[in-house]
Amino acid sequence: MADLLPEHPDFLWRNPRLKSSYDVVIVGAGGHGLATAYYLAKEHGITNVAVIDKGWLGGGNMARNTTIIRSNYMLDKSTRFFDRSLQMWEGLDEELEYDFLFSQRGLITLAHTDAEVRESIRRVESNVLNGADAEWLTPQEVKELLPIVNISDAIRHPVMGATYQARAAIAKHDHVAWAYARKASAMGVDIIQNTEVTGFLKDGDKVIGVETTRGNIATEKVGIAVAGHSSLLAEKAGFQVPIQSRTLQALVSELFEPVHPMILTSHHIHVYVSQAHKGELVMGANTDPYTAYGARGGFHTIERQLAAAVELVPIFARAHLIRVWGGVVDISPDSTPIIGKTPVEGIYINCGWGSGGFKGTPIGGYTLAHTIAHDEPHEYNKHFGLDRYYTGHLVDEHSASGVLH
Amino acid sequence: MMLIDCPHCGLRDETEFEYGSQAHVPYPQDPQALTNDEWAQWLYFRDNPMGLRAERWVHLTGCRKWFNAVRDTVSYEFKATYPVGTPRPNIPPHHGGIR
Amino acid sequence: MANVKPDPRALRESPLQHLATELEAAEATGPHNVSIREVPFATMIGIRATPGSPAHDAIATVLPHGLPAAVGEVAGQPDALGVLWISPDEFLAVSVNERPELVATLEDALGQERGHVVDLSSNRTIIELSGPAARHVLRKTTPTDIHPTVFTVNRAITTTLARTPVLLWRTEDTTWRIMPRASFAEHIAFNLMDAMHEFNHALVS
Amino acid sequence: MTPIAVTTGTSFRVPAAIAPGAAINRDETVEVTIDGHTMTAYRGDTVTSALLANGHRRVGDSIYLGRPRGVLACGVEEPNSLLTVTRAKAETISETMLIGPTVEVTNNMVAEHVQGIGKLAETADPEYYDYTYEHPDVLVVGAGPAGLAAALQASRAGARVVILDERATFGGNLVGTPDAVIDGKPVETWIAETVAELQANDDVTLLNRTTVFGGYENNYFMATQRRTDHLDDQVPFGVSRERTLHLRAKQVVLATGSHERPIVFKNNDRPGIMLASGIAGYLNRYGVLAGSSIALLTTNDSVYLLAQQLAELGHLVAVIDVRADLSEAALQAVAAGIDVIAGSVVCDTTASDQGALAGITVAEYLADGELGATRHFEVDTLGVSGGWSPVIHLHSQRQGKVVWDHEVQGFVIGQPRADFHYAGSVTGSLSLGEALANGANAGAAAADATGHFSFATEPVAAAGHRGPVAALRMVPSPDGEDQDAYANHFVDLHRDQTVQDVLRATGAGMSSVEHIKRYTSISTGNDQGKTGAVNAIGVMSEILDGHTMDDIGTTTFRAPYSPISYVGLAGRQRGELFDALRKTAMDRAHEALDAVFEMAGEWRRASYYPRAGETKAQAIRRETIAARNGVGMIDSSTLGKIEVRGKDSAEFLNRIYTNGFLKLKVGRGRYGVMTGVDGKVFDDGVTLRLAEDRFFMHTTSGGAQRVLNWLENWHQTEWSHLDATFTSVSEQFATVAVSGPKARRVVEQLASDVDFAPEAFEFMEFRETTLDNGIPARISRISFTGELSYEIAVPTQYGRALWDAVAQAGAAYDITPYGLEAQRILRAEKGFVIVGQDTDGTNSPQDVGMDWVVSKIKQDFLGKRSYQLDDFLRDDREELVAIMATDKNSMVRDGAALVSAEDLDAPRPVSTSGHVTGYYDSAALDRTFGLALVRGGSKRIGEKLYAPAYDPPVEFEITPLISFDPEGTRRDGER
Q1: What pLDDT is stored for residue D185 in this prediction?
Q2: pTM for the predicted model, two decimal places
Q3: Are D823 and D635 in contact (CB under 8 A)?
Q4: Last residue of one domain, picked from the residues C85, C107, C122
Q5: Is the pLDDT of residue B74 over 50?
Q6: Does D200 lie at the interface with C, CB-CB under 8 angstroms?
Q7: Which residues are paired to D885 by β-bridges?
């Protein structure tokens, strides 16, 4: 008999009546929006806050991602930022009093070419300097840590080594959203579901309210955290973000007895896989290459990914695909998120996370809350503003590592 | 696997094509005449609409010709493909069914 | 001071020459016959000329069957000189019988006009798949619709086979030419030989 | 788990005369071992039919609660029977989580039930899998009566038809049904004749055991055919076990049928409680009786044919019909002597000592939904029909609208999709006559839409009449209204979730079906809620006041429709066929020299050529020494090559490259760098001017395709008025570079027509010639080592001959083949950049020491404008410099991070000062050295940096980019 999953708290959130005005309105009740509300209440004492979502809370990319939490980025700025997020994750379940199955099980990122080996060394050594844990593994060390990996030379892209981040983790995504929602709700934040923000009320360049499908709400501060649909909201507010929305697909197998206690990634042949607590293999791949809001992608992406998975982990051969789904992700030019002020006074945005927004939930919420509360970015997000696309000061993880994050 | 109507080769699988983002965003006549902000805007910002969008595609493993297309970013349906340098055809937003 | 140079052709090596034995052995015999071989050293010339331009007219004039006008068309015949349509302004002249003089003829025809003539005889090789089961091997390797009423004899297109770009040319009822670039020839040959195995056996539906 | 045979020692196989079993061959027995019991079955049996036939009803315990469970269904919708199967074949591994009713038995197969969690085999899968690509005019999904009628019609109209069915037999649920008649023939005859006609048509592909599992854009469908699992023997190599079909259909006929639903009531999960269609399926398809005393519980008319069969066999106890008013079918049953208990439900069940069904409590179902008087029946089997759910997965996957239909009591097609046609019970219709008629019409319409017109010929069968369907999904608990009273009302058998679990979710504040699904995990199991989802929605609708089935709606149907193996989807993309491996014409020469290879993109290239007894380092050192002091040769064929022709070619290149190309003289070459419009380096190479209007461009090996596309992009979309054409000649030419002080002596022997004197053949010039062996060649004085170098390019067909000729001509000078490792050192000594190694997509040409290649004169080139952005004006940009370890023998790894002295011991985090892009042992410098990207590097010459990852940290001095022969004195070779 399988172990039962942890029990949820008996009560999660209120379903409150929408008020006519709030100190802050957060658009988007995903992980980042809910976390922003939580940190506004907890860190800044701002509790007259509404989090408004056009659907059900946590129903966007929070519900669709493959939950990998890591900080092994290439550039100093990114590594610091994401390692701060990882530090926040460490202890978040206790802080939020919710067992969301946070599991620091280690991430192995395989290298298959000389170029990847070189980049891996660069990554590992710079991660360590920036305070993130990282190691380089030989193929034999990969095999010792994770025996299911095929390190034979007889495959087309043999494993030449790997980077390893022991603190990397997975968590139960929905429960993280619910944990933030529960605490925020308990501190007085109103979570308003099935309500769409249809426009913004402005006085000149300053926001004074939002229009919704349930009427107008007066507010002087709005935080936007609507990954996948950032451009649409920005356009309604009267500014543009350098984002393209694209499909990212993920898939699960049926449940298996534990075989894969870590997280395994290969950028070269585009696959990442972990085994979730219930026992299913959770896998993701590359984004489909064109602009898309359909939350569905081409099956050829999945076939290629499964071929890669079977090459790398032969015992996955006769696992079965149970469910494939897609999400709409924000692709920014440098594959680095945008968190900060916007051309409209009082509107702040959190977007551009690509396929990696889940890991940034705590830091994304924390820094957006700070920026809203102080009308200035926090030290952590000062390099991540929208202005960088006008100055050229990109945090170019995409080019530097060749990976979409 | 979208089926894309290459103006020269006919209907082919999407994997034969490469996507080239928004169409009708020409290279500035004189980049030096632009302000930094205007140049940066051209460099990094593209429309990202939900619905019909004019895009550039190239039939990379076929005739290697670039062409423009109006595609619905939700249904993924290609409403029209047309040559580079010709204006965007006027297509009503809700034209035809999902195919 | 120029010496008289030897004819170098004995020094040539085609991309699949070293696999000749394997290719021969890969033949599936019996009712579902299919065989594979390399047709080496064909003359291939890349032509760029825009329809309606002087270059197009001039080049078409020196070719026995002119230039093809649309996707899939081949001007000429597989066993002699066939000119394949690559794009509206790009063509590939292919002659399995060597035609060393042809490139100069075409260059002369092009003259100073806008266009291009390039010898590409080494750029690709020809893999010929033949026999009643050839169609079924292709059905396992290329997304192209190769139904006989759709992909008629002497039709040729660019497509992919084993995720690799190739030219595919149906030259006879049950004979197909697959033309990968030289460095991909082994990959394509290995893939096709692998796909041929099953036709040695009674078919499983 | 210890399997318990609830009933043993009895065969439940019905004599052939009564129910022959359309799917089995009674002339061929098969020995199998299931859950430790070795038993005899027939060819065509499934694991569950074999179990039931042999009196075994329990199929393992539930995943979390450990409750005994039995077979529920006869098809892919089965939630309980999940198996690990090992077949007795030479090359096979066990497979887990297979759905019992879908697994056909083979001799000596061993099957074990698992408890909701599978166990993967520990070894690789040696079997063979493949793909096909299909292009039907009409794809028919499902080969039941409607699908067969559609395919028949479409094929007769002349359309290309593919018709696929997931089961082993054709004919759907019709198979084995007694007394049915089509076109005046027994159904078996009609099915056999139809199948024969379809199979005889070359333009029809009719496949069984083939599941269409996903529908995608423009009618692209994915299907998996299980080709060999039902065979006892290992098939020969090359015959795939599973085949993944990629179907591009012009028109689609969905004839996917429907799945029966159970009803939620207390203790509704015991072995012996089945779907009525399951009981019928085992009886008609396999000749197996599900139990000895059977009751049926129904909301609709579909059970009455089964009731009649069971009554005739003497095993029917009663039919409990939820509907208070007896339908026509129910009245006929009553007239036939069947005990029909109307207006009643089953509200609880009892179990035997072994946990199987022993009895049912039947309660009056009052008009207000409350329970009335109860009666108890002792039965070992209960067949339930809670209504039918059309299998609309593919419609929904293709964004087809789905709505709740009160009459059908199921989610149905809301609006037909373009290019879709629907036939049979997927439409909600349940009569054979209607299925055949709309099948034929769908086939005609689909074929017509592809240009194949025909008048539909509808096969004729009894239309039948169906009574209304009662709207019941959950029976109230007899124990009151507390949550605890619903602890054993199972909603999702696979996930072991009950009404109590749903109540907990709503109690916590959840009101969305997605939240409740995620909170409880309902419908997330293997079966994806095929039998449970509608009931879960029904339960929610009862709990959440004012929410109708429509309000709640169904969750999204996601592919795949049923579980599909990873390896089947990998197909032949395994091992060497996973990806193309590109080889140059000289590859076998490198092999003959025992080269160690490395991958450069898709290319395999010689890394170094170790001689007997040499270490890697020794080999590389020897190769570099040869190129510096004698002469070396390298295969450079992989470089991208593009011919550019046209009067405006020079102007075009002038816009593309950062430096000027207008004034390049014919007969000479020039090095150029390409940047993106963002000003960042992405490719480089030497371009030769062959004629006023012809250029020969070199690109990096990995960049060839990208550069060609870049040129075409700018030409076609912006500058088509410029006369320039681009033709890839990367593979037309093979190239050997001969490099070293003695290079001239080697090339002189190859091409006696060419005057190689340095003043006659200058650096960056080239000559077209014919080699003495007759091979036409172009010889260019291009150097990537700083030594005198000649690159000889010949048609690829002569590549191997060229390699051999160079080796032979150089033998007297001990010419040494060198690989990429040596080349990387030689060029690094000279400060030559490798794009992609010394650059990472964030660097300008200026950053990597190539300010000289960025024109200050040109009005514009791609990327120029970006250099005015603030980021390019920083003085701490990473710049490429050389570094020398203080200890000349120290080595660090490529990629090593660098910090300044003050950060060396500072607490972490500290920022990097840069990183090493390559670090080498240089024979020429007699020390180690490397290149590094360092913040503000060019202004920090002489400063110290540290690689802190080493113990002790390695100290370096920053030095100018060019470490060897900065004056370039060696370019012309020995004097």
Answers
A1: 93
A2: 0.96
A3: no
A4: C122
A5: yes
A6: no
A7: D956
**Structural domains of chain C, count:** 2
**Cβ C178 vs Cβ C130: under 8 Å:** no
CATH of the domain at C118: 3.30.70.1520
Query: Shortest Cα distance from A203 to chain D (angstroms)?
Result: 32
Last residue of a domain, one of A331, A363, A384: A331
pLDDT tens per residue, range A256-309: 999 999 999 999 988 899 999 999 999 998 899 999 999 999 999 999 999 999
Q: Are residues A47 and A121 in the same domain?
A: no
Average pLDDT, chain C: 96
According to the model, what pLDDT value does residue B99 have?
41
Strand runs labelled E in D864-951: 878-885, 897-900, 914-922, 927-935, 944-947
So what's the architecture of B3-27+41-83 in CATH? Answer: 2-Layer Sandwich (3.30)
Q: How confident is the model at residue D504 (pLDDT cuts 50, 70, 90)?
A: very high
Please indicate, yes or no, if residue A23 is contained in any of the structural domains: yes
Q: Which of A116, A139, A119, A138 is nearest to A127 (CA)?
A: A119
Q: Name the nearest CA neighbour of A335 among A271, A372, A282, A389.
A: A389
Alpha helices (H) in chain B, listed in sequence order = 36-44
Same-domain check for residues C62 and C117: yes
Query: Alpha-carbon distance D96 to C150, whole Å?
Result: 42
Asked: is D483-544 a CATH 1.10.8 domain? The reply is no
The 8-class DSSP code of residue A106 comes to: -
> CB distance from D183 to chain B under 8 Å?
no
- Predicted local confidence at residue A401, as pLDDT: 63
pLDDT digits (tens, 9 = 90+) for C19-61: 999 999 999 998 899 999 999 999 999 999 999 999 999 999 9
Record the tokens describing residue D707, joined without a space: 């550069």
The Cα of C138 is separated from the nearest Cα of chain B by a number of Å equal to 16
CA distance C158 to chain B (A): 5
Cβ contact, residue pair D418, B64, below 8 Å? no
Beta bridge partners of D86: D110
**A292 vs B37, B41, B73: nearest CB:** B73
How far is D141 from D134, CA to CA, in rounded Å?
Answer: 14
According to DSSP, the residues that pair with D220 across neighbouring strands are D216, D248
Side chain identity at residue A216, one-letter code: N
Do you know the residue count of chain D? 975
H or E element, residue B10: strand B10-13
Is residue A403 pLDDT above 80, yes or no?
A: no
Six token digits for residue D826 = 């030689």
User: D455-469, D566-580, D745-759: lowest mean pLDDT where?
Assistant: D455-469
Residue of chain D nearest C49, judged by CA positions: D725
Domain extents in chain B: 3-27+41-83
Do residues C157 and C85 both lie within one domain? Answer: no
Chain-chain contact of D117 with A257 (C-beta, under 8 angstroms)? yes
Contact between chains at B46 and A242 (C-beta distance less than 8 A)? yes
ipTM of the complex: 0.96
CB atoms within 10 A of CB D396: 20
Does residue D512 have a pLDDT over 90?
A: no
For residue C175, the model assigns a pLDDT of: 98
Alpha-carbon dihedral of residues D74, D80, D86, D87, nearest 10 degrees?
Answer: 0
pLDDT given at position D975: 66
Question: Chain D neighbours among A 368-387 (CB < 8 Å)?
Answer: none
> Does residue D566 sit in helix, strand or coil?
helix
Closest by alpha carbon to D21, among D45, D54, D56?
D45
The string of DSSP letters for D583-629 reads --TTHHHHHHTTPEEEEETTEEEEEE-PPTT--HHHHHHHHHHHHHH
Q: Is residue C93 part of a domain?
A: yes
Which of the residue ranges A224-228, B92-96, D886-890 would you say has the lowest mean pLDDT? B92-96
pLDDT computed for residue D590 by the predictor? 98
Give Cα D128 to chain centroid, integer Å: 17
φ/ψ (deg, to 5) at D313: -80, -10
